[in-house]
Design goal:
The chain has nine helices and nine strands. It has about 240 residues and is α+β, with helices and mostly antiparallel strands. Strands 1, 2, 3, 4, 5, 6, 7, 8 and 9 form a nine-stranded antiparallel beta sheet that branches. A hairpin with a 2-residue loop joins β7 (about 185-195) and β8.
């Protein structure tokens, strides 16, 4: 989510450049089920050809959006055991790391709205369905909120930059009625304060599976969040390609 010029821009965009990585670490470490956004596999694998075709492309995004290198790494195991214990599930369902492919990073020119797409090839349709139940687990929001607010908070965010303060991390489930059956997800939000400026960072992750393939869309916003309509449209396009 980085890789952006630090040329003169509005304060909000400059703040997004420096701090969005912190929130993504939290969302990735606590939020990734078996389809971490940073997972990858050999580019020559024919078994992932269908997965690559299911990824979003730039033309799916609104006019004016651009691409950047996808540097998000969701392979951290920090908090996995604690999250599995809180959810009452096997740790293997959190730590499993099947092959997957990533889209480029899509973002507005100012970098305050970002979309990442990951498609995973699970070992079986049964395994894929089991992983979707993890994302849909009703305990997920409370468990993630508790872990992010507890002793793991400092590890998740790393060293706090001078003059920056992180507010309370809140996690909420997405409305099932908003995205239809077969789609599960949650939103992670945290206010970040520096000097006299407070910016709310939001990461929404949406999951869906079809057969052995799983879609994971991540919407990151600094300041004004994505609209439900925007998330619905892109998720509908992504799921339609599975």
């Amino acid at each position: 989510m980085r890789n952006r010029s630090r040329a003169a821009r509005p304060a909000l965009a400059r703040l997004a450049t420096g701090l969005v990585a912190a929130l993504l670490v939290a969302a990735g470490a606590l939020g990734a089920v078996a389809a971490p956004a940073g997972a990858s596999s050999g580019s020559g694998s024919s078994s992932l050809a269908q997965a690559r075709k299911a990824l979003l492309v730039l033309s799916d995004l609104p006019a004016g959006w651009v691409t950047a290198k996808n540097t998000n790494n969701g392979n951290s195991t920090l908090g996995d055991a604690q999250l599995a214990h809180c959810l009452g599930i096997a740790t293997s369902l959190i730590t499993e790391n099947p092959p997957s492919v990533n889209s480029p990073q899509f973002q507005t020119n100012g970098g305050t709205l970002i979309v990442n797409d990951n498609v995973t090839l699970f070992p079986s349709a049964k395994n894929a369905a089991a992983e979707l139940t993890v994302a849909a687990n009703p305990k997920m929001p409370a468990c993630m909120t508790s872990l992010a607010a507890g002793p793991l908070k400092a590890k998740l965010f790393g060293k706090t930059p001078r003059g920056v303060r992180y507010g309370t991390v809140l996690v909420s489930a997405t409305d099932p009625a908003a995205f239809g059956p077969g789609v599960a997800g949650y939103s992670v939000s945290v206010p970040i304060v520096t000097r006299n400026l407070t910016v709310n960072f939001t990461v929404t992750e949406l999951f869906a599976v079809r057969g052995r393939l799983g879609q994971q869309l991540m919407f990151t916003a600094a300041g004004v969040p994505f609209s439900i309509a925007e998330e619905q449209h892109l998720m509908s396009v992504a799921v339609g390609r599975l």
